[in-house]
Amino acid sequence: MKTFVKQYKYSLLCFAGIFILMAIPGTMIPPVPDFRDWLQWDKISHLLFFGGLSYAMLYDRYRLKATAPAIAAYLVIFLIGTAYGAFTEWFQHLPFVKRDGNYFDWCADITGIALGMLLFRLLFKRKKSN
To answer: What is the pLDDT of residues 52-108, one digit of tens each?
Structure first.
């Protein structure tokens, strides 16, 4: 177990950080008034959190010098991130959390995952060519 935690420390920190932030009671967070205001801090934070998560998962894979094909790793990481985004949105609907998980937040999560993967690909492709 220690080895797993040590190997995937960045990914696990991101998973835990996102969960803690998503578990903050809704009464402590200012509301987004309406759909037209969707591109505010709320959606941007979803993009950043889940972009960081996918980047961290790819970085851990890179650090471990994984031998699995990259396309398979990207697919698995995308699916894990998408499922975790769906879980966090469902979790926010629970009565004790008092938050509003919604489809648009989940779309921002998925977009963040894709952007984090793209950023990783661009940065590490450049790094390999140097």
So the answer is: 999 999 999 888 887 777 888 899 999 999 999 999 988 888 777 777 778 888 999
Q: pTM of the entire structure?
A: 0.79
The amino acid at residue 56 is A
User: What is the SS3 string spanning 80-119?
Assistant: HHHHHHHHHHHHHCCCCCCCCCCHHHHHHHHHHHHHHHHH
What single-letter amino acid sits at 104? F
- Residues whose CB is less than 8 angstroms from the CB of residue 38 and which lie 6 or more positions away in sequence, other chains included: 32, 104
- In the chain, domain spans: 2-21+41-129
In 3D space, the residue among 50, 58, 55 whose CA is nearest the CA of residue 21 turns out to be 50
Q: Is 130 exposed, middle or buried (0-12, 13-18, 19+ CB in 10 A)?
A: exposed
Residue 126 host element (H or E): helix 103-129
How far is C-alpha 39 from the geometric centre of its chain's CA atoms?
A: 18
**Burial of 36 per CB tally in 10 Å (0-12, 13-18, 19+):** exposed
